[in-house]
Amino acid sequence: AWRASLLYFPEPAQAVLETDGLLVVGPDASGRQVVQAVGSYSALASRFPELDVTHLPGRIIAPGFVDMHIHYPQLDVIGSPAEGLLPWLENYTFPHESRFSDAAHNSEAATFFVDELLRHGVTTALAFATSHPASVNALLGEAQRRSLRLIAGKVLQDQNSPDGVRDETEQSLRDTEALITRWHGVDRLGYAITPRFVPSCSEAQLRGAGELAACYADVWIQSHVAENKDEVAWVRKLYPQARSYLSVYEQFGLLRPRAVYAHCIHIDDEDRALMRGTGTAAAVSPTSNLFLGSGFFDYQAADRTGFLYGLASDVGGGTSFSPFHTMLAAYYVGREGQTKPGLSLSPQQLWWQHTGGAARALGLEGVVGNLLPGCEADFVVLNPQATPLLARKTAQAASLDELLFALIVLGDDRVVENTVISQAGTT
Ligand code: GUN
Ligand code: FE
Predict the structure, then answer these.
(1) What ipTM score was computed for the predicted complex, to two decimals?
(2) What superfamily does domain 2-64+370-420 belong to in CATH?
(3) Are 355 and 407 in contact, with CB atoms under 8 Å apart?
C-alpha cells in the first residue's frame, strides 16, 4: 500500500485529489496486481491494519499515462528538419526504419524505447514497429520482460515505399497473422494490425488487413488518416470514387471498435459521424501536428459528434515522450478552434485524455488509465517540487486546476520520480 496524495478519476474528466490518501494494491483472482482500495488514509487505514505502507509525503500518485500512438523505430527521427509530412517520411523516416532489418539495432532501440516510456511515466502504449517482423518481436519481447502493457504491430507497406522498408503483399499478411498468434493476449501484450496509411498499401494489402481484422475481432487496428493536405490530395487521386480518405478504410473493413487512427485533422462531419458510428478512435498528436505543420485537431467538432479520442506523442513526428509536453501542446491546439471565452481545454480534461480517456478509446477502460478499484496497478509518483519554479508555483496553487496546470505547463520527466508497473504474482 502507498500513502501519498492521490489523483484519480471517479467520473470521466472529473479528477479528485485525495491529499492524504491510501492506495491499496493486491492480486486479483488471476494473480494480476490491481487496485483494491483508494481513498483517504484516515478512512481506509483501519480497514487494512496489516498493510506494509510506503509513505511518500509531498508526492502525488497518479495513473500511469496512456500513449495512443507512437513509433518505436523513430527515436532518431525526432526533430528532423523537413518541409512537411511527405518529405519527412522520404528523407528521414524511411531511411531510419530500414535499419530495423538488423537484430542488434532492434534490440538496442527496443530497450532504449521502453526505458524512455517508463522514465516519462507512460505505462501503456499503442506503438508502430517497422515492416520487419523482427522489430515487433524485439519490442514486445522487451515489454514482456518489463511487464509493460504494450500493443504493437508490424507495419504494412507494399507500395510507394523504398527498398529496405517495402514489404510483399502476401508475405506481409502471413507475417501479421503469425505475429497475432504469437503475441496477442500473451501476458499484458496486444497486437495491432498496422497498415501504415492508404498511399503505402495496395488494395490487396488493405483488403487482407480488413479480413484479418474481421477474423481477429479483439486485435487492435492502427493507422494514420488525414494528417496533411498533400497526403489527402494523394489519396483522392488514388481513390477518386471514395467519398473521403477515411471512407477508404471503411471500404476495407478497417473501422471498428479498437481501430485507432492518428491525426484525423482534415476530416468533415460525415467522417466524424462515421468514426462515432463504427466505434473508431482518434489518436490526437499535437506536438507532431505543430512540428510538421500538419494542422489542428478540431476538438469542438469532435465533441459535437462524440467520437472517441485521446492523446498521443506520435514520436518521432512528435517532439517529446513527455505526457506533460503533449498535454500542453493539446491546450495550444484547443485554443486554435476556440469560439467560446475561457479555457480551451481544462487541465482535468487534458489529463483525462492522456490517462482514463485514452484507455477508454483503446477499449481498456477499467483496466488501465485510472486508480479505481479493479484497475491494474500502473502508476506514477510525481514530485511537484522537482524544479525550483515548479515548487514555487505548486506551493501557491489554490485549486486542483491550478495545481494540474502548473504541472502541465512546467512539468517534464523531472517530475516523474518513479513509475510503478503492475506485476503478476503476489505482494
Ligand atoms: N503517415 C504515414 N507514416 C507516418 C509516420 O510514420 N508518421 C506520421 N506522423 N505520419 C505518417
Ligand atoms: Fe504516426
Answers:
(1) 0.99
(2) Urease, subunit C, domain 1 (2.30.40.10)
(3) no
Give me the tens of pLDDT residue by residue for the chain, a chain 427 residues long: 999 999 999 999 999 999 999 999 999 998 899 999 999 999 999 999 889 999 999 999 999 999 999 999 999 999 999 899 999 999 999 999 999 999 999 999 999 999 999 999 999 999 999 999 999 999 999 999 999 999 999 999 999 999 999 999 999 999 999 999 999 999 999 999 999 999 999 999 999 999 999 999 999 999 999 999 999 999 999 999 999 999 999 999 999 999 999 999 999 999 999 999 999 999 999 999 999 999 999 999 999 999 999 999 999 999 999 999 999 999 999 998 888 888 889 999 999 999 999 999 999 999 999 999 999 999 999 999 999 999 999 999 999 999 999 999 999 999 999 999 998 643 3
Nearest-ligand number for the alpha carbon of 69: 2
- Measured by CA distance, the residue closest to atom 9 of ligand 1 is 317
> Quick one: which of 137, 120, 135 has its CA closest to 72?
135
Does the domain at 65-337 match CATH 3.30.420.40? Answer given as no
Among 72, 94, 197, residue to substitute to test ligand 1 (most atoms within 8 Å of Cβ): 197
Location of each CATH 2.30.40.10 domain in the chain: 2-64+370-420
User: Distance between CA 364 and CA 357 in Å, rounded?
Assistant: 9
> Crossing angle for the helix pair 388-395 and 400-410, nearest 10 degrees?
170
Domain with CATH 3.20.20.140 in the chain: 65-337
